Amino acid sequence: MIGPMPKRSVVAAALLAASLSSLAAAARLYLWPGAPAPLLLPAPAAPPATEPNLAYPVTTRSVEVRPGDTLVQALGRAGVGARAAAELSTLFTRNGVELKKLRPGDALEVSWTHRGEPIEVRYAPSAWVRFSAVRWGRSWAITRAETRPDVRVEAVRGEVRRSLFEAIDALGESPQLVVAMVEIFESDFDFTADTRVGDRFRLLVEKRYAGEGFVNYGRILVAQYVSAGRVLSGVGWVPERPGRDAFYDLDGRSLKKSFLKSPLEFTRITSGFTYARPHPILGGVRPHLAIDYAAPVGTPVRAVADGVVTAAGWDGGNGVSVTIRHRSGYATMYNHLSKIDAGVRRGVRVRQRQVIGYVGATGLATGPHLDYRVSKHGQFVNPLSERFIPGEPIGAAQRGRFLERAHTMIRQLEAQAPF
Predict the structure, then answer these.
(1) I want to staple 288 with a disulfide (CB 3.0 to 4.6 A). Which of 70, 209, 251, 277 is the partner?
(2) Burial of 29 (0-12, 13-18, 19+ CB in 10 A)
(3) pTM surpassing 0.70?
């Protein structure tokens, strides 16, 4: 039988227990929250003050990029010091961030310690890429995270009640889709002059999602537009020389012609091609060998085909004007402009769809509009009825595979978006 301990032994034991308890508490004090505490180990050295200490709350604030902002300026508004902001700008650039492409509305997120020190800066230039700078010691560690788009092929179908834009908007889709569809058919169909109430359209389009959030559109795989009994079909196909997808009809003929139907994307015709029109300013009946498009001042005017500028400047009653020479004896004129686009001058080569000027009311004009003219071998012709040079068809080597794809895509479109 063990007897009671001597009084001095009891005191010594109590002191030892208290010392061990204090040591264990000290060891736990310096551990990250949630980590298991080792038994009777000395406390590690405290981390540098510039590294995040997760034992204290972290606050995060967001700052929006303004027009003309640099990264340094935006971070400065968020409260980051000039020296740290400059260092972050340099490190982000070295790690692949294109800071010249900062866009108004982009957001920067800055996290702070309880002492008011920035410990992390996050910037997402797109829904697919995110950069993060984390304070570590006396510098910053930069990381890049990428999200793979979730691409889904979806059917879109609608009917024009007032306008094509209104029809797309009623479906909850973006105006981007209108522009993309118009580009497919614009060489064969003038959406400015020929769009009618009751026109129908349908297409299969790739939609790209980040998680469950829609981000943007990918490729249009197949599209149809029906107007006044006429059915236009366009099937996307990567040509033999890889590049931008091209669109072809169901027989493999290119939908991209050498000339666009209209130099303006969306407007209305106010005066057609005629040899006898009452002149609104000079009086009398005179030829009007042009198409007049009504549009607000500043509306972009596009070159309808590749060519070389032969005149650009003031041209009497035509006002500010541009003339372009094209192949096969064609030339086009764009009159009454408010101004000519930078770089467009005599001798310069321009591309189809390139903006060459902007709608105005210069010269003999009663209001803002574009006077558009086409000549062939020196004689003016009606742009709306002229049969321009077709584009290149599908090559013989690819024709069989294209036709198989075209019929497959049309069947899929009819099944998913029946009229």
Answers:
(1) 277
(2) exposed
(3) no
